[in-house]
Amino acid sequence: MKIKTLVPVALASLLALCAPLTYAEGGNGTDNPDWTEETVSAPPPFSTDRLVAIDMPVYVSMKVGVDPETIVVGGDGVVRYVMVMRNASGSTNAVYEGIRCITDEVKTYARVSASGAWTMVANPVWKSVNDNMPSRHAQAFARQGACQSRLATSRREIVEALKAPKRSPLIK
């Protein structure tokens, strides 16, 4: 093999080996003991007219959707969003949350009160999206597009994944 051919191959191989190191140094990796969450801003305004539906298990009677304009992927690897839930009687609730995809955890920062105003959670804590929570909306959101291979991508990619036609499970 000629040296002119070997140099580009060697450089490409070196870059491929270094890419995971660059990601881990960026603050999103679980092996980074220096990871810190960014300062969380106030909940963004949301609209029930823009909601993208989140598919929920059949035993969940609420309709759940995320306002795509509220989705933000932070430099800390956390996907923050406003999720809206509507029950059969028409009552609507909303939460401002964040999902840390690499650890599969969710944190609720604020809830909409009965008056329609945001109420910040006093001491928000990270919880596994797989915990037995009253609602599985965070887990459904993570699996349907927010987290792809345990990584946060971009708002555009998340919205595209949420809007993509769902594949039905194989029947054996």
In CATH, the architecture of the domain at 52-163 is Beta Barrel
Find the CATH topology of the domain at 52-163. Answer: Lipocalin
Sketch the major β-sheet: 8 strands, antiparallel
Q: Count the helices. How many?
A: 3
Helix-strand string: HEEEEEEEEHEEH
Topology, number of strands: 10
Mean pLDDT: 81
Low-confidence stretches: 6-27
- Distance between the amino and carboxyl termini: 50 Å
Shape call:
globular
Strand content: 25-35%
Question: What percent of residues adopt helix (DSSP H or I)?
Answer: 10-25%
What is the SS-derived class?
alpha+beta
User: Which CATH class of the domain at 52-163 is shown?
Assistant: Mainly Beta
Radius of gyration: 19 Å
Provide a descriptive summary of the structure in words.
- The model is unreliable at 6-27 (pLDDT under 50).
- Helix 2 packs across helix 3 (155-163).
- The longest helix has 23 residues, at 3-25.
- A hairpin with an 8-residue loop joins strand 1 and strand 2.
- The chain contains 3 helices and 10 strands.
- It is an alpha+beta fold and 172 residues long.
- The chain starts with a helix and ends in a 9-residue tail after the last helix.
